[in-house]
Design a protein that fits this description.
By secondary structure, the protein is of the alpha+beta class. Helix content is 26%, strand content 30%. Strands 1, 2, 3, 4, 5, 6, 7, 8, 9 and 19 form a 10-stranded mixed beta sheet that branches. Strands 10-11-12-13-16-17 form a 6-stranded mixed barrel, surrounded by 4 helices.
């Protein structure tokens, strides 16, 4: 499986591109190229095609529209001070993508091709990568059932697609968010698709997000499906709790149970925390333990982490049974230290001791 490259004959005007890269927002503008590869049960994967970005033409009876058989990934490319560009742990995205494909009855894609397609798209659209710390090129690989048919069954055809968008911060790291702990809605149940990045998970979360907004909160916190007491995730991000303060603090995060997304940023931050001398624990924490830990001072900070935001400080929480604030509700020095260290590795200002960075030619 190879990638055929046809550069766009009509790239974005230089002035317009520069303006968009200088003020990218999040997911507003898209680069000049995309990647498409097609699969069929009969013939397997075709060669991929890298060509001009543009609309997809799909029949109204395409299976994905009716049964939501699809997956996606989120990853980033970072500009370094020498103007080179680097990817962060792309093979981990490839592995998670294929785990998702298996769960959603879609074909696995060769990991080497997945990473190569990302590298080539970033290389040809390199000038779209912003240069400010904390900014990046957000890369969105996705796959969907493309067979034209009506009937609940795995598709015999699929399309892999890759696009990219320059982005700033998803959340302002200096502005902590307040979260609503939902007991009316559940994100995922054991045996479901909680550990997969599929659109259905996110569509099902939107009513809970609206409920959170109605309570004056920016995000929703999900609890387990059975007892509705154990903390799982925040929106589409993993949650972390800082127990204690200073160099002796412990970074605690809910363990992966099959209902949580195995975040690559989560895994990276736990490693960074160990590198910086913090203790790391994975386990279960109830809402009562959360609230009581804040009241006693045992829990000093709470933050969420994910590819889009890296780290977002959680300043406080609200629930049907009360609300509470973490520390002064504004600052989270340990979370910010972790964030700056991880960004330093991604932008090449801090040594990568773990072989996470992949340079783009």
């Amino acid at each position: 499986m190879k990638l055929n490259i046809t550069p766009s004959a009509h790239p974005t005007d230089l002035k317009i591109r520069s303006e968009r890269v200088a003020d990218p927002g999040f997911g507003r503008y898209f680069t000049d190229h995309m990647v498409i590869a097609k699969w069929s049960a009969k013939d397997g994967w075709s060669d991929g095609e890298l060509h001009a970005y543009g609309p997809l033409s799909l029949d109204p009876a395409t299976l994905v529209f009716h049964y939501a058989q699809e997956i996606f990934e989120g990853m980033k490319a970072y500009r370094w001070s020498d103007s080179s560009v680097a990817l962060f742990r792309p093979f981990e995205n490839a592995k998670r993508f294929n785990r998702g494909a298996l769960r959603m009855a879609l074909p696995e894609i060769p990991e080497d091709f997945f990473v190569e397609s990302v590298k080539q798209l970033v290389a040809i659209d390199k000038e779209w990568v912003p240069g400010k710390p904390g900014e990046s090129l957000y890369i969105r690989p996705f796959m969907f059932a493309s067979e034209v048919a009506i009937g609940v069954r795995p598709s015999n055809e699929a399309i892999y697609c890759l696009i990219a968008t320059p982005v700033g911060a998803y959340f302002d790291p200096t502005k902590p968010v307040t979260v609503w702990i939902s007991t009316d809605y559940i994100r995922a149940a054991p045996g479901g698709t909680g550990e997969v990045k599929c659109g259905g998970n996110y569509a099902a979360s939107l009513m809970a997000q609206k409920a959170a907004a109605a309570q004056g909160c920016e995000q929703v916190v999900w609890l387990d499906a059975i007892e509705k007491k154990w903390v799982e995730e925040m929106g589409g991000m993993n949650l972390c709790f800082v127990k204690g303060k200073g160099d002796g603090a412990t970074i605690f995060t809910p363990k992966l149970t099959g209902t949580l997304l195995p975040g690559i940023t989560r895994d990276s931050l736990l490693t960074v925390a160990r590198d910086l001398g913090y203790k790391v624990e994975e386990g279960m924490i109830s809402v009562d333990e959360w609230r009581n830990g804040v009241a006693s001072g045992e829990i000093s900070e709470v933050f969420a982490c994910g590819t889009a935001a890296v780290i977002s400080i959680v300043g406080g929480a609200k629930s049907a049974n009360g609300s509470w604030t973490h520390g002064d509700g504004k600052s989270a020095p340990i979370a910010m230290r972790l964030r700056e260290h991880l960004l330093g590795i991604q932008h090449g200002t801090i040594e990568d001791k773990h072989g996470w960075v992949v340079k783009v030619g």
